[in-house]
What does this fold into?
Amino acid sequence: MHRVTLSFDARCKSRLLVELENGERAGLLIERGRILRGGDRVSLADGREAEIVAADETLIEAVSDDPALVAKAAYHLGNRHVAVQVMKDRLRCFADHVLADMLRGLKLEVRSITAPFEPESGAYGTHHAHAPEILAPRPKIHEFSSTPSKP
It folds into this structure.
């Protein structure tokens, strides 16, 4: 199976020129508002499939064993319209020194990490892990060029 590694920002775009791991270039066309997630698969125009790989990104991770502190931090990040990945005892967001200082002020342990970023899609978005294939057809990736790009 083919693979294409994309940042979170690229996985949010509805039209994008991408390069598969084998060097093939293709145009990615998805419906507006859909976010591709690591592990999602897209159909190539010729019937093949490609797997989306979430690229490693520079993030801050705020950790606490106190669920109330994690919830409070999530509230404050959401109030600032920041994309947040919510986990059991931690939150992740894009690296920003102002946000890091705010999270430290809320008494969370904050550290810089490099990891794939899979933030929440929002209260009215589709939660990809539970969306049936029938309701969420695979996006299409269209052939752009069969010529590998030059390094």
Q: What stands out?
A: Residues 127-137, 143-147 have pLDDT under 50 and may be disordered. The first helix runs from residue 8 to 11. The chain is about 15% helix and 35% strand. The first strand starts at residue 2 and ends at 6.
